[in-house]
Write a structure and sequence with these properties.
Elements: E1 6-7, H1 37-48, H2 52-72, H3 82-95, H4 101-109, E2 113-121, E3 127-139, E4 143-147, H5 148-151, E5 156-160, E6 166-175, E7 180-185, E8 196-197, E9 208-213, E10 221-235, E11 242-249, E12 261-263, E13 269-276, E14 289-293, H6 294-300
Parallel strand pairs: 1-8
Antiparallel strand pairs: 2-3, 2-5, 3-4, 4-7, 5-6, 6-7, 9-10, 9-12, 10-11, 11-14, 12-13, 13-14
Helix pairs in contact: 1-2, 1-3, 2-3
């Protein structure tokens, strides 16, 4: 039985009631509205599990606290107050260069991003690279989503995983109307990590997103931007196919990004990058990219809806 894919239960926070709303409780006035150290401590600790740099910052805080205890000597621990702890954390927050939200999102998705190479045979019977694209692991048994145009007409497909290991792959499913293909890796790393998928139902224009892939074969490369619009349509440069219900975004994407994940700041996949719009004959990014919503992409793999 195929292991289940990972789905996020993330949801946009409910709007805060306006001060004049009926029944809304108003908080007491704050004469000194300063950041609360304990709240900042909680936020900082929450980040520690997702970033090595934050973890190193945490070790620095612990070192400061330990030094304070040792300097106080035996029984000195009782003199270590909450105020001391808060001060140490705040000092670290102001002196450590913590990663951006985009960096954390890219760091979370990167283990699930794969390089996809398609090959045909030349006249001498040798493998000749036909194209390079991107894929994203959605089930840790080696099930991968990419674009159909990345692997279409290929005589063989090769994957490169985040740890550098390689594998042949086969196309086991397709959804031509959305330019999607499902690949099955023949061999997989022991610690292969599947991406978490998230519903697009509450996406809004202006939401921040990150695209990770192999533009022109370079990568993995990360670009950041925002959702520019929803329910867009895109016709391929050759004019052979029009795809609807797409996510428009402005994170830089170029040939080679095709099939890669479009992710939220939580590192959760909301779309599969499928095309870029350029009114000229050049296949380069001018600020308009499109992604197939993950609901359509997951259905191509026969996975249950959100």
């Amino acid at each position: 039985m195929r292991p289940p894919a990972l789905y996020s239960r993330s949801a946009r926070a409910a709007p805060v009631a306006s001060p004049g709303a009926a029944g809304a409780a108003l908080p007491p006035p704050d004469d000194n509205p300063q950041p609360r150290p304990r709240a900042r401590l909680s936020q900082w600790l929450a980040r520690a599990g997702t970033s090595p740099r934050v973890m190193w910052a945490g070790m620095a805080v612990l070192g400061v606290l330990l030094a304070g205890v040792l300097l106080r000597g035996p029984g000195g621990a009782s003199g270590l107050t909450q105020k001391d702890i808060d001060a140490a954390v705040l000092r670290t927050l102001t002196t450590q260069n913590l990663p951006s939200a985009a960096a954390r999102a890219a760091e979370k998705i990167r283990p699930s991003v794969v390089r996809v190479m398609s090959f045909t045979k030349n006249k001498r019977g040798e493998d000749e690279e036909r194209g390079v694209g991107t894929g994203v692991v959605i089930v840790d048994k080696g099930v991968i989503l990419t674009n159909l145009h990345v692997v279409q007409s290929a005589q063989s497909i090769r994957l490169v995983f985040a740890d550098g290991s390689t594998s042949a792959a086969s196309v086991v499913g397709a959804q031509p109307e959305n330019d999607l293909a499902v690949l099955q890796a023949h061999t997989i790393p022991d610690d292969l990590s599947a991406a978490t998928m998230r519903s697009t139902n509450d996406l809004l224009p202006g939401d921040q997103v990150v695209a990770v892939g192999f533009p022109f074969g370079i990568g993995p490369s990360t670009s950041a931007g925002v959702i520019s619009g929803l329910e867009r349509s895109f016709r391929s440069p050759e004019g052979e196919q029009e795809i609807g219900n797409l996510i428009q975004f402005d994170a830089a994407a170029n040939p080679g990004n095709s099939g890669g994940p479009l992710v939220t700041m939580d590192g959760e996949v909301v779309g599969i990058v499928t095309g870029i719009l350029n009114p000229t004959s050049h296949r380069t990014f001018v600020g308009i990219g499109f992604a197939v919503p993950i609901e359509s992409a997951a259905s191509a793999a026969g996975l249950p809806p959100f």
